[in-house]
Amino acid sequence: QVSQQAASHIDDFGPAVSSLKDAALKSNSLAKETTELCRSTETQSQQMAEFCQDLKETLTTFQGNVNADAFATIQELLSGDKVQTAMSLANDMNDQASKCVDKSVEMVTIMEETMDKLPGPLQQAIDQAIKSEASADETL
Q1: pTM metric for this prediction
Q2: Going by C-beta distance under 8 Å and a sequence separation of 6 or more, which residues neighbour residue 82?
Q3: CA separation for the pair 60, 56 (Å, rounded)
Q4: Could you write out the three-class secondary structure of the chain?
């Protein structure tokens, strides 16, 4: 029945497939941007973890008696520049995480809007293929 409906809408398929291809290309581009943002965020989180580890190690040596070297190290770790850098890093990570979410939502929106514009028989064929693939994945 889907193939009979598809035959009656054959003239709609060319532009629909072209639109689907364009949406997939745009989503692919957004996925690449999202991946890069995630990698950058991961690098920044490692830098933040290193800063925190340095601070923890220094403070662990402080047990009531602070020698001049330990005090200088604590002062260096907590200096305005270091704390400001850590705070800036945390803000950057937050911004990048928000951008990742925004790009992911944009990808889903693009694909949903494109699917909504496809001729009914093509939508049905795609939905059927997705369901078949999902049920095949469940059996693995």
Answers
A1: 0.61
A2: 51, 76
A3: 6
A4: CHHHHHHHCHHHHHHHHHHHHHHHHHHHHHHHHHHHHHHHHHHHHHHHHHHHHHHHHHHHCCCCCCCHHHHHHHHHHCCHHHHHHHHHHHHHHHHHHHHHHHHHHHHHHHHHHHHHHCCHHHHHHHHHHHHHHHHHHHCC
Write out pLDDT tens, residues 91-136: 888 898 899 899 999 999 998 998 888 888 888 888 888 888 888 8
- Show the tokens assigned to 98: 């928000």
The tens digit of pLDDT for each residue in 29-62 reads: 999 999 998 888 888 888 888 888 877 777 776 6
Q: How far apart are CA 39 and CA 100, in angstroms?
A: 11
Q: How far is CA 135 from CA 69, 100, 130, 139, 140, in A?
A: 64, 29, 9, 7, 9
By the 8 A CB rule, do 31 and 79 touch? no
